[in-house]
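lol ok so funny story. i was supposed to be doing the assay writeup but got distracted and ended up predicting the structure for this chain instead. priorities right. anyway since i did it might as well share w the group, maybe its usefull for someone
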Amino acid sequence: MSAVLVIAGSDSSGGAGLARDLHTLARFDTQAMCAVTAVTVQSDSRVIAVHPLAPDTVRAQIESALATGRVGAIKIGMLGTGAIARAVAACLPPREQIPMVLDPVLASSSGAALLDAGGREVLRERLVARATLVTPNIPEAAALLGTQPATTEEELLCQAHAWLALGASAVLIKGGHGSTSEAVDLLVSAGGSPRRLIAARSARTHRGTGCALASGIAAGLAAGLELGDACARAKRHVLELLHQGE
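and the output, tada:
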């Protein structure tokens, strides 16, 4: 069975980060391997402290996981610092060898910064080009491109193509922060037609949905699903989380 290697930070509250990733992979009956980037101290409402690990330790975890030969997909979440992001970039295999889902975690739900300026630069300049799929939400997509958040589908498409120009094979801009009655995630691949993943907008909010979506997609890719099908399946899982309030 192929495993998903999760590169992310821990969350002591269990709502997001590695805890949510592992919960998601278990739901999809997918083996998990972990490379911890940071230990965070969090409650359900705020980030109290963030303790990044040594970059060499992060790199050693990744290399040890890859050496098993069982990694079928990689999911990258919180990186924390530019030094850690560089260490991760230095040991990633090509996406043609192992598909990679990059979730650009910039801040917690409560607004605490989880990636410094140097990390954002490495993400844009080195990690995006290694990604099979990048999964920013609307504010993240804009912040990393240095522009204003999109308010129309035309603007979303323009930003999606800007992400492709950075080297990503595909981008899924999540519509949870939109203002329409439907939450529309826009999947755009190089040379392909846009695909819209549409759901009624939920009144509930839930920490860790971005982690769950990206991990769910990685689980699908590890199982050999086509990218669009992996995205659709993972979105159904996130909708179940929102409805169940887990």
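The chain has eight helices and nine strands. The chain has one domain: 3-244.
back to the writeup now i swear
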